[in-house]
């Protein structure tokens, strides 16, 4: 089956493995557990190591099962190449490991997943300056730029308060200044949004979340969209300059982020994620519809102080989300009125499950300030708009009526 533009998102992903020969005519790329790959010609082995021809060297740097998933993610993002990692955080960590040096400067959205915030603070302690800004306005990003700025990093929809970066205008700014623009697409997924269209050079996806979709495998990915000119990036080592300009960034990321950093995705996990990815569009349609229905119900209830969801007209970036995304995502957060204990509320839920993952088929809930954002302290939480009573909801594929009843009854 050819990968023609006439095929839609799901058809392309569903049949992608068959574009290349598979052993025994299997419909799925099988799980290759070997970490070593033998060659009958030693010269060919050397040629593969030197990057003169395609092939596998060692499991830490690549594997046929992982490679098949990488190709699938590349198609999802309309990119030119993808690298998969053991987790989404490993993918973000590889950015610093492979592409940044002491004295460099990064501008990051201040509205970040807690662990990403922690990682950038670690990077800052090791000699790379990091400026956190309100990325809902491009002027804030522009004001923070310096001659040493190497990267601008944003999330599409922030976790957990759902602020939306001024994606297109930041992309225009980065393109004009020749700065690498990195967009974390985890909350939207490539089904709802492709960061390539706003000029992102690299796209992050935490495969653990909606792409894998079933909460049974960790993984992350970096996709090169082909938009950024790597020949202008000052931190590419001389040995990678021998590659064609378009391949230099991924060549260095593979060597420094996988070979040296060692955050490789296991083939078994890659297989689980690849199978889960086949139903991404179907699941996103359902979870986004469920999230909108739940958010609307909670916003209308007088016992709820605030609901943060881009699909609501009350959201500050509702219009921006409507213009950019196919739908508004499966994550929202809300605050209960004073006097209603968030723990008691969560304990009354029967369908929603207290858990810390996102993008699962099941609806998961968590008290944000007391768990995943506890480490950063009250001052930093306040700067990110995270109330002490904030509850994050990752909405699943359950029957809509059951979710509405569960969240409504728990308010009683």
Automatic annotation (TrEMBL):
Stated name of the protein:
Cystathionine gamma-synthase family protein
**Record's NCBIfam families?**
PRK05939.1 (NF004609)
Signal peptide boundaries: none
What's this protein's family per the entry?
Answer: Belongs to the trans-sulfuration enzymes family.
Asked if the Swiss-Prot or TrEMBL record annotates the protein with the keyword Nucleus, the reply is: no
Q: Which InterPro entries match?
A: Cys/Met-Metab_PyrdxlP-dep_enz, PyrdxlP-dep_Trfase, PyrdxlP-dep_Trfase_major, PyrdxlP-dep_Trfase_small
State the needed cofactors, names only: pyridoxal 5'-phosphate
Q: Which Gene3D superfamilies match?
A: Aspartate Aminotransferase, domain 1 (3.90.1150.10), Type I PLP-dependent aspartate aminotransferase-like (Major domain) (3.40.640.10)
Pfam families given for it? Cys_Met_Meta_PP
What taxonomic lineage is listed for the species of origin?
Answer: Bacteria, Pseudomonadati, Pseudomonadota, Betaproteobacteria, Burkholderiales
